[in-house]
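TA notes, week 10

Several of you asked for a full example with nothing omitted. So below is the full record: structure tokens for the whole chain, then the designed sequence directly under it. When grading your own attempts, check the secondary structure regions first.
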């Protein structure tokens, strides 16, 4: 079985408010996170069509911060993407059980470059498709097709794990079985029910 993982909020942490707090402190962190990360410009960074410097400049009017201040927040993102130890254990078990693992993520260049340089979990993965590198994004059907074609995968032999129901729905429309991720324990249980791992004994 090919098991495809989203990265942010599945394999690694994604906490926009926490990122802002780490740079600016707690005051106004929620609003700043909304202004920066819940904005179309951030999607363009993920798509690979906007640089962090350009986004920092364009964000001045809505954040009230300078280019340098905005950029400091944006540049703090990569190092904030820390893996979940429980998920790493699950990934290692799935790999050990003979499954092929892949990543499919909406992520900008700086973040994926940092993860490749600093994280060791890639040794378990057979391949990855990242939005900024292909200029396509979930839930657009083409990015799923790109993954399938690139690694010669059959939809019926794939399971996709993502925290976004919309991304799961797009995968299922192409014949890929989906798991909406909420936590590692639930994900493990669902994978067990699909025959990928022994079903957890609930006692």
């Amino acid at each position: 079985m090919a098991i495809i993982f989203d990265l942010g909020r599945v394999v690694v942490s994604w906490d926009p408010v926490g990122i802002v707090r780490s740079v600016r402190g707690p005051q106004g962190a929620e609003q700043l996170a909304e202004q920066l990360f819940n904005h179309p410009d951030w999607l363009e960074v993920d798509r690979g069509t906007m640089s962090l410097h350009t986004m920092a400049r364009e964000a001045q009017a809505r954040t009230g911060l300078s280019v340098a201040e905005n950029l400091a927040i944006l540049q703090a993102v990569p190092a904030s993407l820390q893996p979940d130890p429980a998920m790493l254990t699950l990934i290692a078990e799935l790999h050990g059980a003979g499954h092929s693992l892949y990543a499919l993520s909406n992520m900008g260049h700086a973040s994926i470059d940092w993860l490749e340089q600093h994280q060791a979990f890639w040794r378990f993965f057979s391949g990855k498709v990242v939005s900024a590198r292909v200029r396509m994004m979930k839930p657009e059907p083409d990015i799923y097709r790109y993954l399938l074609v690139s690694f010669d995968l059959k939809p019926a032999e794939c399971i996709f794990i993502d925290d976004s129901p919309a991304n799961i729905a797009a995968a299922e429309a192409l014949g890929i079985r989906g798991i909406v991720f909420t936590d590692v324990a639930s994900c493990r249980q669902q994978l067990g029910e699909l025959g990928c791992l022994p079903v957890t004994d609930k006692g």
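The chain has two domains: 2-12+81-194, 16-79. Use that as a sanity check on your answer.
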